[in-house]
Each structure stands twice: as C-alpha cells, then as structure tokens.
Amino acid sequence: MLGCPQLLQQIVAAAEAQGKDKFEENYVIATSWQRSGQQQSHSGKGGNRCPDPPLHPVVVPHSMAQVSPRQDRRRSSSLNGDKHRGESSDEASEAPMTTYLLYESAAGYALFLKKEFEETAETEEEVQNSLLDPKKVSKIVSLHAWTQFRDAEDALNQANSISAGIATEELVNFLEMNLPKKKKTYQLGVYDPELGKALAEQFPIAHGQSVKELLRGCRLHFNRLVKDLNEGDLDKARLGLGHAFSRARMQLDPNRQDKPIMNTIALLDNLDKNINTFAMRVREWYAWHFPELTKIVTDNIAYAKVSRVVRVRDNFEGDKEALTEACGSEDVADEILKALKMSMGQDIVEMDMKNIDHFASEVIKLADMRKTLHEYLKAKMDLVAPNLAALIGEIIGARLISHAGSLTNLAKYPASTVQILGAEKALFRAIKTKGNTPKYGLIFHSTFIGRAQQKNKGRISRYLANKCSLASRIDCFSDEATTVFGEKLKDQVEERLTFLSEGTTPRKNLEVMQEAIKEVTKLRKKRAKKAKAAAEAAAGGEEVEEGAVKPKKKRPAAEVQPEAEETPAPKKKKKRAVEAEEETAASEATPKRKKKASA
C-alpha cells in the first residue's frame, strides 16, 4: 500500500489502543486524493499533463465520512439491532415499576394503585376528559389501602402537618404497612412537593403532571372508589375540617396583633390626606365671604370651627365665648371680631352657607376620628411593640411594622435593612447609577435625626436603626410587655447625640442592659406580690362570705382580757406557797442528815 508511513503508524496505534471493533465504529479509513510535494499546474510546458497524485489513507470520523447509502443502511440496521437487543436484555433484567398514589382526604388517608395509564399517547385535555368518566377512572386506578382519622381533632392535626410539609407518624406507619418492602419495585406519587420532600428519605417519591392528573381523578370520584365511606359523611368531614382549619389559621394572638396596627396606620395616612384636601376646600370656599380669616386662623380644623360659628358675617351676634372656644385663644377671637367690622369679602347666600357649614362639620368629624384612631394606635403599640414605641414613637414604629409586613418580619431584618426601610426606590436608583446610597428611610422622621447635625445624621440613623432592630426583637420574642428596654435604648440614643455634639463618652451597652434587667426583675416581683395579695384578699372575702359569724366573736374576746389578767396572780401565790413548803421540807431534812453523819 502506498502512503505516508507516519500516518499508517498512527492508524495502527489507534487501532491497538481502542480495539478493532470500537475503532471501526468510530472512524473510517478513507482514501482521498492528496498531492505530494509541490503543486503543479494541470497544463505544463508543451501541453503535457502532470502525473496523477498518489493515494494516501486518511482517518475520518463517521460524521464526516461520505458513506454510500447502502453502507449507511447496513451500518444503521446493525447498530439498531444491537441497541434493541441491549434494551430487551435490560427490560428482561429490570422488573416493571409499580406506581402508588397517596391521597389525603378530610376523612383519612387513601392509597391507590395505578393499573394502566398512557401518558404520552394523549394530550392534557384528553387526559382530563378521560378522567371525568368514573368507569375509565376505575380501570386506571384501584383502592389499595384506606385508613380513617380517629376524630375531628386528629383530622385537624393531620391537615396542619400536611400543610406545613411535615410527615406525621400515623402517615409514615400507614405507608410502611401497605407499601412493598423493596423500594426499587415501586414509586409513590404525591401531589404536594413539600410533603414529598419529607417522605423522600423513606420512600421513592414521584411528582409530576401525570401524578397530579391521576390524583385529581381520585379526588373527583373518591366516593365511588372508597365504598366504605358515605357521601354525606365525607361532605360533613370536609365542612368541619374546613371550618376548623380556617379558624386555626385566622386565630389572633392577643400579644401579636400587628395586623390592626398595619390597617390603622394606613387609615391614618389616608385621613391626613383627606383632611388636608377638604380643609383647603373649606378655606377657598369661605374665603370669598371672609378673606381676612385665612391669615388670622392658620390651623385647618380651627378654621372650620370658626367658619361654623361666624357663618354669615353680617348676621354674627358677637358671641365671644363660642368664638374663643372655636379658635382656642382670646387674642385670636378679638382679632376676628375686629376683622368682621372691616371685611372686604362679598356677600353670601344662606343656601351656600348651609353647604359650607355641612362640609366644615364633616372636616371636624374626620379630625375627631383621626384623634380616636391615634389613641387606638397608641394603645395597640403599647400592647404589641411597647419597646419600639417607647424608642421611636408609635407612628414611626407602626409604619416600620406595616412596611415590613409584620412584627416578626421586622425582627428578622438586620439593622442595615431597617435603616433604609422605605427608601427602596432611591436605593435601587443609586445602585443602578452607581451613586451614593440613601442614609435613612422611614426613620428620617424621628426627632433624633432632626436634632442631629448635618454631618452626624448618617451616624445617628445607623445607630437608631440598630436600636430599633433590638427593640423589635425584644417585643417579638419576649413573654412580657414592658417599656423598660425601650426607655433604656432611648437613653442610649440621647447619650450618642451628646457624644457626637459635645464629646462626652456614653455608657456601654452591657451596663445599660444589666440595669434594664434589674428593673424588669423588680417589676416582676411587684406584680407577683400584687397578684398574691389580690388572691389572698379574694380568698379572705370568700371565707367571710361563707362564715358571717366571725365579726361577732371579737366582743367576748375583749371581756375575757381582764379575767386573763386576774388569773396570773393566784398562780404566783401558788408558786410562792410551793416554794415555801419546799424550803421547810429541806430545812427539816438537813438536820436529820447531820445526825446520821454524827452517829
């Protein structure tokens, strides 16, 4: 064979390394026309053609080789035959996979066995339409095992666990009893992926569109598949479990009522906007009749009250007391009376004045409603987040809770997030333009940042956000609602302000917290004493009510006292008489002993 010896050596080495069969499958030894030496033109001098170039073997992959159709068909048929033979051998070695379906109903757990179901032969709509027929569903799945809940409380506990993605002990025992022991021979279809993750450690889990469609069919025809269960009982179980589950989800914790706080602060913001808009409308409307009143009375609510008192300028009788009560100052009332005499406003009709009066009364009602809402918000903040309210105020604290979504979410935020909470647009704009990020968000309205110098506003905002984060965590995770920690944190912020302005060193955080803990323990002891005293007083009151004769026993006790005073005297006389008798007996006995001794 003619050719390059180096190329032949490479072909032989590749064949020895990979094996002959594998080499022939992957490569083709083809011959190609290749010129050796320098290229010559086809027409030399004198019209003589150049000699034909020799043949050189070239190694070409199958994808690049130009194979004849017959050779291609033979090769493909042989490869397909080998592939089918391999698949048949694999199928023979592996047993068919059995699919079980877990359905959690309101009455208990059901385990279904899938018989036949072609997933690829039909579209999704055709599959759903086929599952609407109960006869087809009974051919596709059959009931394998069924267990019923003990009572409504057990059903609620199981539903809460499943919604949280927790596999209960009852569910695991039910599956272990009714599923095969060899895990490679079956798979368990579960609708909820979170529950599937919890069961994946013990059982092979399948979760896909076909499993969802089959479980929908099982849920639709559950009454016919489970013959031991009546339709009326299942409806009652669903209704009772639905009410109990929803009631448990919507139950309010009295110590964590942050949802009313969020609604109240949103309503307060809307009320402020509406009150300002309506008050400005009252000013514009009544200023045509009494324009001087706009400069005299600057407060919007006071302006509405004065407009209701004065009404038509010419008909005002000069009731100074009512005017003083409306504007809140005698000096302002005197100015109004002076301006009434020389006003340059136009006359107004009584019908227009009625409309102005009615609109002004609505503004006053909205202002009163805002006051009551503010008091309600203060009471709620003292109950839910007392330390945060004591530190930064109930309005800003409520806005922080509302912006975070709940007190728990606010407690989970770091101090850096609390610092810029409410300034997300400015933050993302700064990140996009690669500019300076904002230093504060909602906490900018705090008095601490307003009192700080311009160069220290960023430092105070960072320090205040840190203390707000601590206060929210104390409020969220503490058992008792106290304002001690919030007041101590507020003192720390004040000390930081003086440190930045004057340079006095503040106290350490450890010292402040130790003082706060001591105060909290004292408060607990006082509360315990008060509770104990109240319990004793209640118990004493019950005893007095049971035996009403007790106060009458005090009178004979006072009469017995003189008798008790007289009785000790005879006792002393008796003691003296006894002592005298003992002395005489001793005196009589001593000489007898002497006589015996002398004898």
TrEMBL record:
Gene Ontology molecular function, alphabetical: snoRNA binding
Record region (Disordered): 33-95, 534-599
Classification via InterPro entries: Nop56/Nop58, NOP58/56_N, Nop_C, Nop_dom, Nop_dom_sf, NOSIC
Highest taxon, organism lineage: Eukaryota
Any GO BP annotation: ribosome biogenesis
Sequence intervals crossing the membrane: none
GO cellular component: box C/D methylation guide snoRNP complex; small-subunit processome
Key words of the record: Nucleus, Ribosome biogenesis
Biased segments, Basic and acidic residues type: 70-88
Location, primary (coarse class): nucleus
Database matches in SMART domains: NOSIC
Compositional bias ranges of the Low complexity kind: 33-43
Record's protein name: Nucleolar protein 56
Organism: Symbiodinium microadriaticum
